[in-house]
Design goal:
339 residues, alpha/beta, Rossmann fold, 2 domains, four-stranded parallel sheet, two-stranded parallel sheet, 11% strand
């Protein structure tokens, strides 16, 4: 890796980043102005209460919109589903108000990604669990990886060293539907288990087919171009599954709430130039100003490619579901790196 004398503009760039990240990671006008599913569900719940007609379907709250889609595909009409996190937001920084959190405390089951992924919702999740809401945190059950390493036993490390971004790997995601069914039947044993298992099996088949499709989409990327530079360390599982190498991240962390140093940025620019990395992959749910600034400092032409790494997209985005999101990301990665 080449090193260069650190010019003054790197320090100015880092200062600008701190301002931008601080503004982006707070609750913000966007997060506050969105009418969340939790808020809507709260209004609906009030109407239901007025009618004094309790539903026979259990209420399942999901803290992460990607897992909410998986739950919807798995559970179907067996549950009332509350999707807490709007699409297009950063799951690390997303927060809700106390009034929006109300319906979560009335849920029969709360599903979260876990491993400190939903950082802005951590207090709500822990409070709901303390109030007796059954909680399934999925990531700890799917052979979690430490950042940039191999599978480890959970007792060997604490949560802060484990990578929560397992969902970039469809093979691990294929373990999730039956985990969700197991948790649901614990709280609602009256449901039709055979029907739920059949639904989970059908979705698992789709996830297994997705894995094969992603492998085929990535097949044309040559070994010497299988390098990933991302906004933050989000593609560890993807890289492990599909034989890529994460060579660096703008935010040298598994969270978007981190900040880089001037030295980090300078070293990453040198690495991109040295390896001839043709693309920087940014997150749809996070600002890309620093990615653009970094690309301007690299001595080769670099494309900024936006991916739906941690959020589903709106209708017409190509990332309306988890399956579509993974296909779209794989196509974009293959296009940008195939040369």
């Amino acid at each position: 890796m080449r090193t260069r004398e650190r010019p003054r503009h790197w320090y100015l760039l880092a200062l600008a980043l701190v301002v931008a990240v601080t503004a982006a990671c707070g609750p913000g006008d966007d997060a506050g102005s969105d009418t969340s599913a939790a808020e809507t569900a709260g209004a609906d719940q009030g109407d239901d209460a007025d009618q004094d007609a309790p539903s026979e379907r259990p209420k399942v709250a999901v803290a992460f919109n990607i897992l909410a889609d998986v739950a919807e595909q798995t559970f179907g009409d067996h549950v009332e589903l509350l999707d807490i996190m709007p699409r297009g937001v950063d799951p690390h920084s997303f927060q809700i108000s106390p009034s929006e959190a109300g319906p979560i405390y009335d849920a029969d089951l709360l599903i979260a990604n876990g491993l400190n992924h939903e950082e802005g919702l951590a207090r709500v999740i822990r409070n709901a669990e303390a109030e007796g809401v059954p909680l399934l945190e999925v990531a700890e059950h799917v052979d979690p990886l430490p950042f940039g390493s191999d599978v480890v036993e959970l007792e060997d490390v604490d949560d802060t060293t484990l990578d929560p971004h397992f969902f970039t790997d469809p093979v691990r995601m294929a373990e999730v539907p039956h985990l969700m069914v197991d948790a649901l039947l614990e709280v609602a044993p009256h449901l039709d288990e055979d029907d739920l298992r059949a639904s989970a099996d059908a979705y698992v088949e789709e996830l297994e087919a997705l894995h094969v499709e992603v492998e085929e989409l990535l097949a044309d990327v040559p070994p010497e171009r299988r390098y990933l530079v991302t906004n933050h360390s989000v593609f560890n599982y993807f890289a492990d599954r599909y034989d890529f190498t994460e060579v660096g991240a703008i935010l040298p962390s598994g969270t978007t709430l981190a900040s880089p140093s001037p030295a980090d940025l300078e070293d990453l620019a040198a690495t991109i130039t040295e390896l001839g990395v043709p693309a920087i992959f940014a997150d749809i749910g996070s600002p890309d100003q620093l990615a653009q600034a970094l690309a301007n400092e690299v001595d080769i032409e670099v494309e900024i490619v936006a991916l739906f790494t941690e959020t589903l997209g709106s209708d017409g985005s190509g990332a309306e579901t988890y399956l579509e999101m993974q296909r779209t990301n794989a196509r974009e990665i293959a296009r940008a790196l195939s040369g």
